[in-house]
Automatic annotation (TrEMBL):
<feature type="transmembrane region" description="Helical">
    <location>
        <begin position="12"/>
        <end position="33"/>
    </location>
</feature>
<keyword id="KW-0812">Transmembrane</keyword>
<protein>
    <submittedName>
        <fullName>Flavodoxin</fullName>
    </submittedName>
</protein>
<dbReference type="GO" id="GO:0010181">
    <property type="term" value="F:FMN binding"/>
</dbReference>
<dbReference type="InterPro" id="IPR029039">
    <property type="entry name" value="Flavoprotein-like_sf"/>
</dbReference>
<keyword id="KW-1133">Transmembrane helix</keyword>
<keyword id="KW-0472">Membrane</keyword>
<dbReference type="InterPro" id="IPR008254">
    <property type="entry name" value="Flavodoxin/NO_synth"/>
</dbReference>
<dbReference type="Pfam" id="PF12682">
    <property type="entry name" value="Flavodoxin_4"/>
</dbReference>
<feature type="domain" description="Flavodoxin-like">
    <location>
        <begin position="57"/>
        <end position="213"/>
    </location>
</feature>
Length: 213
């Protein structure tokens, strides 16, 4: 009887250990893919640099691994727009940043820089972020809440692995409208799961297709 209890306890520890190893392996895989995408995207973005002196269109974005930044820079080039990145002290590349992103997902508040921008010279504003747990990242909610969009047309753009929930898009739309803006539309690209994502060329072509349709 005692031996059977010991065996059960031993099996429980073995199962627990296997679960921990599996979770750790999954986290390491995700973080490794994130890091690879970041390095790859930094190289690609060198060819997407723009210098539009005068424009009535602004692209504002938050990006963690660089996928949304690629999308933002492609939109900037196609629309001959100005480009402003939203910076955040949290959610950087690495294990800590990945965990923070999971914790922050579906929130509507974040510490960002710049928090407020003079939008008076623009007619159309594209605001972009990745989708975290079916919701745009909190950084763009914070930006939307803090800025005056009176008389502006706003387009939300997102890149994601799988899907979004319309509730969070509607929440974002409400913030824009409360601050005087007109929510024009939501455009997005589903890149696919982490191990089976579309390549960069296809991603950029899909971005261009979204803007011409």
């Amino acid at each position: 009887m005692v031996k059977r209890k010991i065996n059960k306890k031993k099996m429980l520890w073995i199962v627990l250990g296997l679960c921990i190893v599996t979770i750790a392996g999954f986290a390491i895989t995700i973080v490794s893919i994130d890091s690879y995408q970041y390095r790859r995207n930094q190289k690609v973005m060198k060819g997407l640099l723009t210098d539009n002196v005068s424009s009535r269109t602004l692209v504002v974005f938050f990006s963690r691994s660089g996928n949304t930044e690629l999308m933002a820079r492609k939109i900037t080039a196609l629309k001959q727009a100005h480009l402003i990145p939203i910076q955040s002290k949290r959610n950087n590349i690495g294990v800590k940043g990945w965990i923070e992103a999971l914790m922050d997902a579906r929130k509507a508040e974040a510490e960002i820089s710049p928090a407020k921008i003079d939008l008076s010279e623009y007619d159309t504003i594209y605001i972009g972020s990745p989708i975290w747990l079916y919701s745009p990242a909190p950084q763009v909610f914070e930006f939307a809440r803090r800025n005056d969009f009176m008389g502006k047309k706003v387009v939300l753009f997102n890149s994601m692995n799988s899907k979004f929930e319309q509730k969070y898009i509607d929440d974002f739309k409400s913030i824009i409208e409360q601050n005087g803006g007109t929510f024009e539309k939501h455009i997005y690209i589903v890149r696919g799961r982490m191990t089976q994502q579309m390549d960069v060329d296809s991603f950029l072509k899909e971005t261009e297709k979204l803007l011409t349709n």
